[in-house]
Amino acid sequence: MHWTHAPELPGADAFAEALVRLGIRPALGHTAADGATMARAITTGADATGAPVLITHLFNAMPPLHHRTGGPVAAALSAAARGDAVLELIADGVHVAPEVIRMVFDLVGPAAIALVSDATPATGLGDGRHRLGELDVDVHDGIARVSDGGAIAGSTATLPDCMTRAVAMGIDRDAVWRSASRTPATLIVTPM
């Protein structure tokens, strides 16, 4: 089991240590951390668990990669290239642009990518108003957005949908299969 937290928040280090003591792997994401904070949290997590750290929904709910301030995205990509992190990628055609998904596959390879769907309760229900926890969500043309504000609210794609889209984006079929099956499985079965 993984639990995602933002490493820049007060108490994040103590929280991550408590997770490890309970046998729960810390995951990092939904963060505005600077690159140094993210890199330190990845290294600390990998050292504490003896396994790569999961980066939840790379690019989403993170500041964008910029050439002057790489932030959490640059730290996560570097760590994945070294084998210290596995990057979740949502290949639903909404969350991350196809050229960015291809770039991540080219940079770190499928062994460092866990392809995910971020499917919500609206998946399979079609366009209209739906609930996501406490939030009203409007789905239009298969894209779920929070009714108040318009932020993306998860996905309506299944994992097989994301796999099909990734292949259509030009990702090698074997790489897609590995990132959707074998890589995520290693996160589940690798002992701490």
Automatic annotation (TrEMBL):
InterPro entries: Metal_Hydrolase. One of its GO terms (biological process) is N-acetylglucosamine catabolic process. Keywords: Hydrolase. GO terms for molecular function: N-acetylglucosamine-6-phosphate deacetylase activity. It comes from the Bacteria. The keyword Lipid metabolism does not apply. SUPFAM superfamilies: Metallo-dependent hydrolases. The keyword Hydrolase applies. Coiled coil: none annotated. Belongs to the metallo-dependent hydrolases superfamily. NagA family. This is N-acetylglucosamine-6-phosphate deacetylase. It comes from Nostocoides australiense Ben110.
